[in-house]
Amino acid sequence: MRKMVRIALEGITKRFGDFTALRSITLKINDKEFMALLGPSGSGKSTLLYTIAGIYRPTEGRIYFDGKDITDIPPKDRNVGLVFQNWALYPHMKVFDNIAFPLELRKVPKQDIEAKVREVSQMLHIEDLLDRYPWQLSGGQQQRVAIARALVKEPDVLLLDEPLSNLDALLRIEVRAELKRLQKELGITAVYVTHDQAEALAMADRIAVIRAGKILQVGTPDEVYYRPKYRFVGGFLGNPPMNFVDAEVENGYLNVYGSRIQIPAQYRALIEKLGVREILLGFRPHDAEVVRGAAEGLAGEVYSFEPLGREQIVTISVNGAFVKVFAPEGEHFSFGERVTVKLREDRIVLFDRKTEKALEFLP
Ligand SMILES: Nc1ncnc2c1ncn2[C@@H]1O[C@H](COP(=O)(O)OP(=O)(O)OP(=O)(O)O)[C@@H](O)[C@H]1O
Ligand SMILES: [Mg+2]
After folding, report:
1. Pocket test for ligand 1, best of 14, 47, 159, 211 (most atoms within 8 A of CB)
2. Mean pLDDT of 256-260
3. What is the model's pTM?
4. How many CB atoms lie within 10 A of CB 306?
5. Residue 281 contacts by C-beta under 8 Å, 6 or more apart in sequence?
6. pLDDT tens, 110-128?
7. Which of 122, 188, 337, 355 is most buried, by CB atoms within 10 Å?
8. Contact 6, 65 (CB under 8 A)
9. Ligand 2 mean position, distance from CA 127 (Å)
10. 260 CB contacts (<8 Å, ≥6 apart)?
11. How far apart are CA 70 and CA 57, in angstroms?
């Protein structure tokens, strides 16, 4: 039985000289959980991962594995498996020796090494490649070897830094499903760094969204997708991302560039209570439809439309603000046509325009 491993980060700050890369990060990762660290380039994802690995020492804050403070324990004694973006296999070693290397460092007996390498290779479907050199492998195969090398020492925690970003789009989608399954089969706590929102949504149990060294929101894929805490989160997740339009609270309605729509039922009491007037209205492209004729919604005109096979993305100018809405395949649109964007009320998310924070999360 694998032992349990919970990770707790408490008030982690990391400075490089006078630059602050991480700002007081507190995060708990459960045993056997798949946690994605998602954020744009330069947001501090890798820095946080390497801090968990022990490669970086936090300037402030403590790290706990299963309640034990490991902040001062060197990386080699933390028993973590690390997979990097560029897999960095040893070029002069065959696949077998690449995978065996961490065990040789530990002076594991030869027979045991042999058995362990075979076992992990079977798991990753690379047992036929053990006799090749890294340059004789495809990118996807090299990536599996790198994961095998990280897993062979049976780490307590698996840390992955954009491990799929060197693969082509199709292979990424294939490997991400396999990796997700493997993580659950092994029951190993995993932290996965990515800037790809689709990857985070597809793979993670929970996602921590990071921007400029701060965690903005931690939640299940559903929570961060449908109930973003900040405009940034709504705008970072989804393809196309969440739409935003300015709205004013007026006489119990929302005025959106001259279109009058009902305040969504779930927000009526809250708006009353908070007394906010300047709102940012967010909705996802599949939580709206393009209709013609009289209907409550945002009046606008068709700016463009892009067929995508099963559906199409219609871009609509709502008084100069562009929003994107999915429409069924085959529906015909013409440029400049007057339409109404009808919103699915229960999926609307309202933000305070000044702080860009969702109303439900306002203090
Ligand atoms: N060793 C270092 N010395 C100084 N600054 C650093 C160092 N490592 C990282 N930084 C800075 O810290 C910030 C966060 O870097 P980090 O590598 O963690 O970003 P990231 O989210 O992983 O980005 P990417 O998606 O591009 O890999 C960046 O502004 C980076 O320039
Ligand atoms: Mg990085």
Report:
1. 47
2. 94
3. 0.93
4. 11
5. 244, 245, 246, 247, 254, 256, 348, 349, 350, 351
6. 999 999 999 999 888 899 9
7. 188
8. yes
9. 30
10. 250, 253, 254, 296
11. 11
SS3 assignment, position 281: strand
The three-class DSSP label of residue 146 is helix
Cα–chain-centroid distance for residue 171?
Answer: 18
Task: Give the CA dihedral 203, 44, 213, 33, nearest 10 degrees.
Answer: 30
Enumerate the domain spans of the chain: 7-229, 243-361
Ligand lying closest to the C-alpha of residue 210: 1
Closest CA to ligand 1's atom 5: 16
The residues, any chain, with a CB within 8 Å of residue 298's CB and separated by 6 or more, are 245, 256, 257, 259, 261, 316, 318, 323, 340, 341, 343
Bridge partners for 324 per DSSP: 315
- Fold classified for 243-361: OB fold (Dihydrolipoamide Acetyltransferase, E2P) (2.40.50)
* pLDDT score recorded for residue 167: 79
Domain 7-229, CATH among 3.10.350.10, 3.40.50.300, 3.30.70.270, 3.30.360.10: 3.40.50.300
Residues with CB under 6 A from ligand 1: 16, 19, 21, 39, 41-47, 195
Give 220-234 pLDDT, tens digit per residue.
999 999 999 999 999
Whole-angstrom distance, CA of residue 322 vs CA of residue 344: 18
Give the number of the atom of ligand 1 that is nearest the alpha carbon of residue 213: 14
Number of H helices, E strands in the chain: 9, 20
* Residue found under tokens 């959106």: 256
